[in-house]
Design goal:
Elements lengths: L3 H16 L6 H8 L3 H7 L3 H25 L4 H9 L9 H12 L5 H20 L5 H20 L9 H14 L3
Helix pairs in contact: 1-2, 1-6, 4-5, 4-6, 4-7, 5-8, 6-7, 7-8
Amino acid sequence: MASARDRVLDAYETLLIDHGAAAVTLDAVAAAAAVSKGGLLYHFASKDALAAGLLDRLRERSAADADAIRSAPDGPVAYYLRTSAPGGGVPGGVTRTYLAVLRLADGTTSGQAVREALAVVDADAFAALREELADPVLAWLAQLVGDGLYLRTLTGTPLPPGLDVEDLLERMRRVLLAGTD
């Protein structure tokens, strides 16, 4: 069972995703997490502390995702693209937390802290992709393709009819192999 702290962060993510930062109150988070307000305040003394906790969670999940990228049996690029595509995310992984942090960026919390946390996520993924792709431009290209798939995941936009991630991976492999000549 999840700890009270994790339940609070899970509830905060859900409220941010469903209602946006402006609508989230400490009372609403406590109720959604099924903890008392005192229990919430024990872990997070303010909305700013709650936001900082969510950014810490994003950095932790990003580091774990980067490790998974590096150790993927099919290689970093295949893992990155598959898990970026709609339906390909890892439950409890970075995707949901990333979306909540994007919603947090719309609110009153410091935009600088959000940008710094998102920069860590990007740097983690890029470093992991560079382990397979020595050329930084090709690694960046693979990251940008994954980011496009990720945007579809976050917005609920389906892939084009008749195409799937395996088609994309096959073409990317050919392009990436051609780029190593």
